[in-house]
Design brief:
With about 350 residues, the protein is an alpha/beta fold. It is built from 15 helices and 14 strands.
Amino acid sequence: MCLIAYLVPPLSVESLASRQLLKSIEKFSVDMGLCVEGNVRRDLRNPYEEIMNKKALIFLRKLEILRRLLFSYIKYKAVVIPYSTSFFNPLSVLDVKYLLRPMEKLLSKVRAILYVYDSPVLQRFIFKGVLPSFSLDAESRFLNKAHAIMVFNSYFAKFLEDVYGVDRERTFEFQLLDDFVEFMPPRDKKLNFPSEIIWIGNLSNFKAFTGNIGQIKNAVFSVYGYGHLSEKPTNLRYKGLILDENSLSLKISKADFGLLAYPKDFADYMLFGTSMKFSTYVVSGLPIITMSNLIYPAEIVEKYNIGWVFSSLENLNDFLESLNEKDYNRKRDNVLELAKKIRSGYFFKKALREVAETL
């Protein structure tokens, strides 16, 4: 019999990146011998799927969340819960009014282990500069009922301690988002000329850089994702939206680099973690080019020696002109080693084992 369960956010509409993360975490939980309450294939909705009667879906989801928590309290010693707005949204009047109080009671009883890969409140504050008056208190009450909280890094742990009074002894760092894909990039690779640089994600986050990349003569930028680009420099190629993670990894593995760059507001948020974009690049065998204003991702790139950090994209011309294949493959070898860990769920499993010792 399982002592710990993993609870899938029921009937939730997730972004493509969150869907891939949650599918991966479910697999890694099963690898560790955890039971699974729910099923990703049944419970997670594609954001592009036509969903009828969304109000009914939201109502059913709230009931199912409470049912699964109660069931987990009866059956298990503890339960791992990925924290997303589909599970509890502290910015929602309805969630705070009707879901928070019964959830507080169940979270404390079930010995909840929250896997926090996002903070709705922190994200809203950084992006918008304002918050609903009730949201800070709601997220504080929610988080403080957990037995343990898994977070990216010490920056996030300090935020929880300073803002919500969460004891550091209850936070456990996982560093990176794990990403299970079956595709494995080839061991050997030659540099393209001009170099091909990949960018994936919401195209609205890429618009800030279209002016700069037109000045980079030694590279072609291949962009995958959803949205619209009004300005398209001659060295930019829009490759569409690929929904399947294995197909995406296979496609982009033929390129040379993965670009991790965001507008300023998103860059500020990146102090508290990385993104699935980062992990997708790594499991696809791409060394990473990132910006120094992305403090935590830049630290990870330098820690594992898996890419290059620049203060501006304007520096790429000289860099690409002087880069030799030997230096490139030295970085890429490190990428492939880190990819083994990410693909196997190393970071999630390591943090969860540390939590399990406290139960």
